[in-house]
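Input structure tokens:
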């Protein structure tokens, strides 16, 4: 076996491998650049949940609040630029995600210090990831999840678990237990029913678990996250400095995935990256778009470009104003 593994490759095999490698490089480098701006002339519908969270205020007021925080806090802006530079992305992508989250999700805090204080508060609480009496640790030990354990990377492993949850558990009865018809991140990752996303970047604990491996390759001092230590996860996503690191990682991953899987370079469209930051499940969405365009090509139709949702639409619409912050 060892002689076979280390034997020189057949020249024909080498040639085939070379052709394959060159083909892959060409495909990645030839990714279609998604042009700047919105594909939709009007803003797509805003979900009821966002409207409910904005009662007594307005989206424009919330937009101005986060925009003004970014404008006056030069230390924060410096950290945004540094996180973007480390991950090789335009800082406008991080700004877009921040503005989108605090316009359509929660109001921005008046001072950055508030985020640091709240992050520390999570370290002192007794938190568990569970639904009723079932912890997430117990759930993923059930046989249905076994195939996910062989996956090496945290992003693939937790995406696999999400898919099994959706297919086998969500809204169904399993072994006498009735499960809610909701996302895995909502059912198991809400401490004390305090919400689904947290901190400056409004990150979900499940998102942090997914990209933890990727984060630690560039930032080895960041802790290895574990579902057995929920306090560390919440402190990580609540603390502004590490939150920016995770935001940059999530956005970089989205850009790389859409290029390698769907064949689109979205790095010039912060509205699209903001949309993906808002929606999540980037790998599944990229494969879905790839499949959709394969069918379109078979019919002689032009490929469909990635499109912005209501959240990304605002970012592209306000782009000149947001660029001014840099």
């Amino acid at each position: 076996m060892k002689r076979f593994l280390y034997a020189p490759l057949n020249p024909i095999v080498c040639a085939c491998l070379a052709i394959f490698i060159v083909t892959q490089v060409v495909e990645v480098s030839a990714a279609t650049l998604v042009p700047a701006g919105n594909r939709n002339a009007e803003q797509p519908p805003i979900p009821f949940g966002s409207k409910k969270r904005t009662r007594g205020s307005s989206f424009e007021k919330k937009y101005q609040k986060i925009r003004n925080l970014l404008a006056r806090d030069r230390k924060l802006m410096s950290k945004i630029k540094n996180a973007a530079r480390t991950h090789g992305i335009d800082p406008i992508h991080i700004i877009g995600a921040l503005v989108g989250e605090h316009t359509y999700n929660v109001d921005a805090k008046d001072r950055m210090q508030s985020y640091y204080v709240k992050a520390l508060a999570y370290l002192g609480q007794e938190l568990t990831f569970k639904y009723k009496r079932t912890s997430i640790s117990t759930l993923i030990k059930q046989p249905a999840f076994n195939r996910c354990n062989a996956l090496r990377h945290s992003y693939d492993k937790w995406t696999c678990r999400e898919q099994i949850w959706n297919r086998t558990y969500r809204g169904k009865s399993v072994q006498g237990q009735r499960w809610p018809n909701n996302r895995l991140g909502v059912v198991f990752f809400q401490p004390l029913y305090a919400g689904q996303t947290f901190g400056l970047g409004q990150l979900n604990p499940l998102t942090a678990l997914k990209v933890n491996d990727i984060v630690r390759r560039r930032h080895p001092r960041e802790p290895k996250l574990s579902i057995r230590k929920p306090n560390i996860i919440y402190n990580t996503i609540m603390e502004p400095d590490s939150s920016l690191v995770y935001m940059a990682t999530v956005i970089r991953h989205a850009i790389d995935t859409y290029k390698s899987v769907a064949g689109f370079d979205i790095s010039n469209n912060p509205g699209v990256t903001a949309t993906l930051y808002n929606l999540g499940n980037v790998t599944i969405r990229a494969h879905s778009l790839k499949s959709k365009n394969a069918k379109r090509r078979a019919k002689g139709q032009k490929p469909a470009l990635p499109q912005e949702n209501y959240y990304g639409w605002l970012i592209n619409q306000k782009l000149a104003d947001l660029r001014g912050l840099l």
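The radius of gyration is 21 Å. The chain has 17 helices and six strands.
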